Amino acid sequence: MKIRKEYYQQPTLDVAKDLLGKRLVFNSDNHVKRGIIVETEAYIGPDDKASHASRGKTNRTAPMFEAGGISYVYLIYGMHYCLNIVTEAAGYPAAVLIRAVKVEDESDPRVASGPGKLCRYFGITKEHNQLDLTGDILYIEEGNRQRSPIVERPRIGVDYAGEWALKPWRFYLADSPAVSRK
DNA sequence: TGCTGGATTATC
DNA sequence: ATAATCCAGCAA
């Protein structure tokens, strides 16, 4: 069952944790890809120095300032796309980076074990920026209700953010083999 | 108009 | 430990 708009407009930390165990679905013209979300990171508000939005609203970060319930896709290091789920109310920049999913119908459990790998496997590019998550192309639905404990750790790759890099805003399912950087 | 460096990954 | 490989953001 597809998750509704209001869900994404809740506090970002709540959404980041609650998304674990849910199923990400992507429909392109010729294929459907699915995966259980096993790792996320929260980027919250205008003061979070690890967030792209900390320098204000720009052309790139505009989706983060929209109301929760759309995608924010950007290119990093000139070669990898990253998928975010925009959260909270319009005007308040926040999003959840989807860092890893477990693809059920693949022999390799690690084909999508990282934000860049995930987009490569799903076929997600900048064409899929700012998509409405209540539409039919990209959305999230209830998954298997797992009872795996949630681990909280500092975010990855944001050492430039000073004290903000220390916040434990990365979340993953403790026993998942598909978590990044294992 | 030019320069800098990054919410990564694979390989050395 | 480091190359690969663009382009957003900022300085000028």
Please provide a written account of the structure.
The structure is a single chain. With 182 residues, this protein is mainly beta. 10% of the residues lie in helices and 29% in strands. It is built from 3 helices and 8 strands. The radius of gyration is 15 Å and the shape is globular. The protein binds a DNA duplex (12 and 12 nucleotides) through β3, β4 and α3.
Task: Offer a quick outline of the entry.
10% of the residues lie in helices and 29% in strands. It has three helices and eight strands, in the order H-H-E-E-E-E-E-H-E-E-E. It is globular and about 40 Å long.
User: Hey, roughly how much beta strand do the residues contain?
Assistant: 25-35%
How many strands in all? Answer: 8
Uncertain runs are none
On the 0-100 scale, what is the average pLDDT? 96
Number of helices: 3
Order of helices and strands: HHEEEEEHEEE
Percent helix, as a range, is: 10-25%
Give a short account of the largest sheet: 8 strands, antiparallel
Shape: globular
Structural category is: mainly beta
Radius of gyration: 15 Å
Ends apart, CA distance between termini:
31 Å
Give a quick set of tags describing it:
182 residues, mainly beta, globular, DNA-binding
Write the SSE topology:
Layout lengths: L4 H4 L3 H7 L4 E5 L4 E13 L26 E6 L3 E7 L7 E9 L12 H8 L15 E4 L8 E4 L16 E4 L9
This protein binds a DNA duplex (12 and 12 nucleotides) through strand 3, strand 4 and helix 3.
